[in-house]
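Data deposition worksheet. Section B asks for the primary sequence of the deposited chain exactly as it was used as input, without tags or linkers unless they were present during the calculation. Section C holds the resulting structure in token form. Section D is free text for depositor observations; keep each observation to a single sentence. Incomplete worksheets are returned to the depositor.
Section A, Depositor: J.P.
Section B:
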Amino acid sequence: MKTRVSLSTIFRCSLERAFKTPMLCDVSKVHTGFGVMPRVTHCTEDADWGKVGAKKRVFAAKAWTFGGGEVSSDRVIERVENDHWVIEVADFRTWMLGFDRLVGEWKTTALGPDEIRVDYTYTLHAPTPWFLAPLAFPAQWLFGQLFWRIYMGRVLENVRAMAYAEEPYQFP
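Section C:
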């Protein structure tokens, strides 16, 4: 089963800033935690991050739902410069309501000088057996449409603040 969640907004900065900031800046300033989601503290094995096929291990702080430490891995699936990113978050080290991977897309479209439309989408994938689907799907859909949408909005605003502040990139 899949649950898709999307948000759109306008960034008032350069296309490059709107495109690069969410993936190439300090991820601990992007994913600051919320509710059941612990804040990201750091990543390892990220020397090639930003290149298609690159993977990194993600670590998070201790939270009431997580003991702290490695939480998942991220992989760059697609990168089209100043247009869009597609990443996959997988290998969860904590229970994620039956989701086995999340596929995120960050799309940027220039509308004018320093006016960039950002379309931010996540598809949450859950390989639920058919006989459990009637029970699992409502909870997974609610998680996506309520909690995950709020979390994505917080991430979007963190990225906006970093883009406007011209936060330095950590990766080329």
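Section D:
The chain has one domain: 2-164.
Strands lie at 2-11, 40-44, 55-60, 69-80, 84-90, 101-112, 115-125.
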